[in-house]
Amino acid sequence: MIGTSAAVALGSGSLLFTSTPLVTANLDNTVQLNSDRIKLQTKDPTVTRVATVVFGAGGSSGWHHHPGFVIVSVKSGSVTVWGSDCSQTTYGAGSAFVESGDDPAQVTSVGGATNYVTSVVPNVNPLVFRIEDNPPPCAAP
User: Fold this and answer.
1) Among candidate residues 75, 140, 124, 72, the one with its CA nearest the CA of residue 100
2) pLDDT tens for each residue of 86-124
3) Are 2 and 22 in contact (CB under 8 A)?
4) What is the pLDDT of residues 18-38, one digit of tens each?
5) What is the secondary structure of 84-132 as a DSSP string?
6) Per the omega criterion (within 30 degrees of 0), is the bond before 126 cis?
């Protein structure tokens, strides 16, 4: 859901969608945490980024996926996450969801929304937070 870095495919393009990075930081050491039934493990150095993502009414992220993973917290409004099979799940203010994997996804908002997005990605050069994808066959007009 974060609109930064190089595109890998032509993609479907975003609309009424703005991503503003708040902070980007290196996590140079590997992490192996297991506390209170929550696990986090990295095998190599990673980069974290927190961004504000704002959707205007009728906005769309365009089809994309992320290296690593992102945790999205919906501050206001609501967003609908479209899976690569065109399934849909809507999240309202106070909800959170995770995006990961290579399958394309798209996030839309009918009435507009503000989200806080935390990304954890491999520390590679060039640094990539988002990879553009073409729409899946089920989303073709």
Assistant:
1) 72
2) 999 999 999 999 999 999 999 999 999 999 999 999 999
3) no
4) 999 999 999 999 999 999 999
5) TT--EEEEETT-EEEEESSS-BEEEESS-EEEEEEEEEE--SS--S-EE
6) yes
